Structure formats: C-alpha cells, structure tokens
Amino acid sequence: MAHLEPYMKVNKFRFLYKQIDSKSLEDKVDNFWTELLRRYFYQDEFIINQNARPADNEKKKTDFIIQAVSGPNSAEHVVLVEDKRPSLSGRDTAWEDAVGQLTGYMIQARDADKRKLKLKKGELLPYSIYGIVNVGKYSRFYVLHPRNDTLQDLPGTHGKTFHLKDDAEDIMKFLTELVAATIPYASSSSSSSSSAESSRHGSPSRPGRHGSPPRPGLSSGAPKTTSPAAGKALTSSYGVSAKPKAKP
C-alpha cells in the first residue's frame, strides 16, 4: 500500500470529524467511516457495502461489509463494521450491545462464506474475519477466528478504545494491517498445504487468507477473548474502562 498522509491532516476528514458531536446521530459516524474505509480499502480487489446484510437470508443489516474479490465469481467477507451514535460512547451497555450485534453478523457472514465454498460439515473457513465497532469518535478492533464463536481483540490493540483524532496514528496502523491481512492473492491456489493448515487454525502469526504473507503487526501473542455476554465483566475483559474520557 502506498504511503498515505495522516487522515486528520486532510480537510475532508477534519470536516467530517467536526460533524460528530454529542448530539449527532449515527449517520455522522457512518459518513466519517465511509471515507476512511475507502481511503484504505481502495484497491480493485475490495468491495465496500454500506448498510448491508451479512447473508442473503438475513433481514438485519450491519453498517459496513468489506468483501475481498479473489476471482470473477468469488467475493469473501473479510471486515464488518458496526457504528453507534456518539451519545452512547460512555455507556458500558452500548459497547456490549454493539459487540454482541457485530459478533452475530460476523458469524452469519462466516456461515455464508462456508456455504458458498461448499465446505463439508466440520470443515473450517480458511481465513479469519475482522470487525470494527465505532461508538461516536471511539473505535475498537476485533478478529473472529475460524474455530471461535466469540470475538477476540485484534493483536496489538490490547482491548483498548481508540479515539479518532488523538489515536489516529494507531487507527491508521490497524487499518493498514487489516488490508494486508485480507487482500486476495492471485497465487492463492498454489499455496502450500502447510500454509493452508496454518490459516485454517486461525494462527495470527502464520499466513492468513489463501496463503497470504504473514500479517504485519498481528503476531503479538494470543489475543483476549471478548464475550458479548460478559455483562459487568466487560471492563476487565477489554483491559480498559468502557467509559472513555470525553474529548472534543
């Protein structure tokens, strides 16, 4: 990926950021992330679907679904995003509900991909799916490995909450890593069996989707498991308070 200027130095993002305040509705958060996702997942191999169903037979929609196109007849779900309005950012239950929603959507997307790939019962999807929860100006990053039904903190995030402006450098880093972890490779069909086996087990330090190179920055040990039903245990599960300090 070509080097990108920090997004908060770009007038478009500074304008969209100022539209997000305590009285804003969810659409202001959507507007910012529409442009931010397009900035990073800009390659011809990605499709960004807004307000989309994780599976054709599902009625509920998530805010964004990013698909990686590996061929003329194939597009896998790789990143899902759930947004909430800014006024909810200080509420534990809002984060818990958003993570629960995103977990359900990601499992549905994974099941849809397994059906599309015609995997047999017990076979695992050969790649992980990533998730982002945005509540106002704050974000958290997750991964759903093939063997898991609960989200785990994206390695390197340590369950922390990141502010769009104050933590812009971190957010840029994580988005760059997600692109590297999910971009399709034309040589995927020639991947070695050992690479396929590693990705099948969802190892964050081994080749990822279809035998792609090791994920940069995603090899810092096993991430913590995040249960959407953790209730009051949510704060300790994330490692930081679910109530971020108010910032302009």
List key phrases describing it.
248 residues; eight-stranded mixed beta sheet; 6 helices; alpha+beta; 20% strand; single chain
Task: Explain what this protein looks like in three dimensions.
The chain is built from 6 helices and 8 strands, in the order H-H-E-E-E-H-E-E-E-E-H-H-E-H. With 248 residues, the protein is of the alpha+beta class. The chain has one domain. Strands 1, 2, 3, 4, 5, 6, 7 and 8 form an 8-stranded mixed beta sheet that branches. It starts with 10 loop residues before the first helix and ends in a 10-residue tail after the last helix.
In short:
The protein is an alpha+beta fold.
How many domains is the backbone divided into?
1
Radius of gyration: 17 Å
Strand content: 15-25%
Overall SS class:
alpha+beta
Largest sheet: 8 strands, mixed
Distance between the termini: 31 Å
User: What is the helix content?
Assistant: 25-40%
* Overall outline: globular
Mean pLDDT: 79
Count of strand segments: 8
Give the topology, please:
Elements: H1 11-18, H2 26-40, E1 46-52, E2 62-71, E3 74-84, H3 92-116, E4 129-135, E5 138-144, E6 151-153, E7 162-163, H4 168-182, H5 193-200, E8 225-226, H6 234-238
